[in-house]
Amino acid sequence: MQQLAGNQYVITLDDDPMVSRIIEKSLSLRSLAFATTTEFSARIPTAEPLAVFVDIHLANDQSGLDIVPQLRARWPYCPIIVITADPADEWLVDAFHKGA
Can you give the pTM of this predicted structure? Predict the structure, then answer.
């Protein structure tokens, strides 16, 4: 497994690969893209991102919010930014409660 520490990058958890590319272009930083929480969880121990972008609704009825407490525990000062096209306010409240 490639060691990630020491490089400047963000992480994007979204099942749409275009989102990671947009974030990468917008920030001029490399974005490591993950489509599922399972795939992302395996990389958490070796990662040291500048920020994490998490989509709420992922494929296979997964929610990116489910991994936020684990991310907050691992990276207490890392910005965790929730991204979604869902306008429902309850998702925002849930995101804040989980540490985003």
Answer: 0.83
